[in-house]
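Hey team,

Filing this mostly as a record. A colleague (T.K.) asked me to run one chain through the structure pipeline before their review meeting, and I want the input and output archived in the tracker in case anyone asks later how it was produced. No errors, nothing strange. Just documentation.

Input sequence:
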Amino acid sequence: MKIRIKEDEVSSAISQLKSQMSAFMGGMEDALEDKSKDQKESVVLTTASLLLALPAILGLIARLGKAMSSIIKRTIGTASQNQNDADKYFQQMGRIADELHHLYIKPIELIVRRFVKDPTKASKVANAIFHVIVAIMMIASGVGAVKALKANSINMATLETALTAVKGGEVKTYLSKLIA
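Output structure:
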């Protein structure tokens, strides 16, 4: 049994296959461009989120270091020279965290002072605006964590979740001080 294929049928099948492959490749290019754009946006958003959370992260590390240092002092019994150095280091880290926090708020405060003449009120409004930005970035980090989990990117999901927790703690502290 011989199968006879006509030449025009072959060229028709090839042209159909060619058009389907080019449509498929075009769709793949569009999908890759969209994915690349999403990844770029994700990297920029995560970097901004990390920078915004940096003062709170440094503050947490400083408080944890001070607590660990005092536990070690109680365990050993006397304060060694290394322990005093550790205390100074964590105290300096806490100061850096505070300065960085004020560095972030200062530009907002300068803008607010154009509208609010009282410096105390301007500082409070700037602090509120800063924490609204932190809350927005907290939500964005939560969304990023969910997207990373869906994409099976455990590392990114962990980072985004940690950033969400840090920002959530910062917003909670601000609201607690505001209400009290």
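Quick notes for T.K.: The longest helix spans residues 7-76. The chain is about 90% helix and 0% strand.
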